[in-house]
């Protein structure tokens, strides 16, 4: 079974945030569990499923509506999943674009994925698609190598941060650290699972950045670079019986711009230089990352 954020809690007693609920619903839409025209469950049913108050569900639905994923939004009945008809070649939100690109990358014998990100939440969710294809026997790479760079636990993050200052104990930092570690463990577990069940040579490594990356970067087999900028927003979230007002980035909504090595000189140079940049960070100023 592929473990997701739906069945692995970051903290045993922690409730999912509205952003996390929205991301779970986005993933269900992306993989086809929820199809265009389907009606969502009621707010009460969603609140019961996720173990949250209706207010968190309403915020999640508003986020999906702003993304254009819901239609017929009214107080009288649950909304429906909207028809999606993105123009070919146009940049798409990370949650929409990453899964298909990973699936294509996994179709080669030797898979290599290098990532710079703030947390691995979107990567963890998007990975479910290629892993499902492996479990169904539709693709079978000989080897899979993942290298992931994320911010160190020991730095003062540029984001997320409280809108107002904090004391010695920073709840926003603690929340981010718990999410970073839990999501990375799920990513690691799901990749290692195909090693034990399908005897694929799998290597997963994490290293810690001494700075907060302002963008996310995915390098796929040295042939494609996907770049997205973290867009900061001011928002509130309930965490351990507190309301945190913070500046944060909604990474799943970042538009991913694709650069293909085969597309021509400019794209090829961008992919090559991005790979050199990643390799240099990996081999120089980064440090071991402990998921604890």
UniProtKB/TrEMBL annotation:
Is ATP-binding among the key words of this record?
A: no
Question: Looking at the record's lineage, which domain of life comes first?
Answer: Bacteria
Q: Keywords, A to Z? A: DNA-binding, Transcription, Transcription regulation
CDD domains in the record, alphabetically? Answer: WHTH_GntR (cd07377)
Keyword DNA-binding attached: yes
**Pfam families attached here?**
GntR
Q: Which InterPro entries match?
A: Tscrpt_reg_HTH_GntR (IPR000524), WH-like_DNA-bd_sf (IPR036388), WH_DNA-bd_sf (IPR036390)
Domain HTH gntR-type positions: 15-84
The UniProt entry, under PANTHER family, shows: GLUCONATE OPERON TRANSCRIPTIONAL REPRESSOR, TRANSCRIPTIONAL REGULATOR, GNTR FAMILY
What's the name of the protein?
Answer: Winged helix-turn-helix domain-containing protein
Q: Which organism is it from?
A: Streptomyces viridiviolaceus
Organism phylogeny: Bacteria, Bacillati, Actinomycetota, Actinomycetes, Kitasatosporales
